[in-house]
Please model this.
Amino acid sequence: MSRPAVDKLPALETGAHPIATAAGRRAPPGRLGRYEVQHELGRGAMGVVYRARDPVINREVALKTIPLAAEFEGHELEEARQKFFREAETAGRLSHPHIVTIFDAGEHDGTAYIAMELLRGQHLVDFTSSARLLPPAIAIEIVARLADALHYAHRQGVVHRDVKPANVMFDPPSGELKITDFGIARLTDTGRTRTGIVLGTPSFMSPEQLQGRAVTGRSDLFSLAVTLFQLLTGQLPFRADSMPGLMLAIAHGQPPPIGVIRPGLPKGMQGFFDRALAKDPEERHESGAEFAIVLRDINSPGLS
Model:
C-alpha cells in the first residue's frame, strides 16, 4: 500500500471556477503602482483580490489589496503601514512548494497591495461541505503537506495566524496546493480597525489566540487540525449560536467524536484530534513536522 499522491489525484467535478479564470466580476480600470488591474478575483474581510499584469516583465499576478487609509487613521495608520511592509517582506522571503510566492508589495493612494503568483484551482473551503468531501486519504495527505509548509515557515520565524480552508488554494488535476495570506493577520495585533474588522476566523482560532495570549506555531497547528476536522466531516469541531458561546466552546468544550460523524476513518484519527485540539499548546504536537508524520502514519499504517 502506498501513500496517496495528491499530484496524481484525478480531476474532480468541482463546479467552481478556478481563481485564475474567475472573470465574472470587474474592477474599475486603472493601476495599482505599476500593475495594470484587469478584473476582480474575490473579496475578503480586508480588501479585494484582483488579477493584474506587470507590464515591466509581462507577468500575470494576483494583487491582494488592503485599504489601509480607509481602515486606520493617524498614528495607527503609520503603524499599520510599517507593519504591513515588515510582514510582507518577511512573508516574501518564504520559498516553499506549498506557500504562495510573493513578488512585490507597495502602496497606491492609501491602498496597500501584495503582488503574488496567480494560482490555479479553488479555495479548499469548496471541499468542506458534506456533499463534496474529498476521500479521507486525500484530505489527510493534503493537510500533512500543509503541516510541512507551516513547519518550514515556523522555522523561519513566521506564524500565519489565520490558517483556514479559505486561505488554501488547491487544484485537483495538477495537485497544486498553496497556503496564502501569510502575515496579513498580524495587521490587527493592536486591536480592531476603524470599521470593526478583526482578522482571523474565530471558528478556526486556538484558545490562546481568542484570549489574546501569545500566538505560536502551535496555534497555527490547532487551526490546521480544525481545518482537517471540517474536511473530513463537513462540520466544525466547535460550534455555537453566538460569539461568546463559540469562544467558550473553543476554550473549554470538546468536539464530538469524529468516528461518530464519519465512520470508517483510519484508526488513530480520534487520538490525533485529542492531541491536536488540546486546550494547552504544550499538549499539542511540537511542530508541523511531527504533526505531518503522525498524520501520514495514520494514513499509511505500517509504512515509515
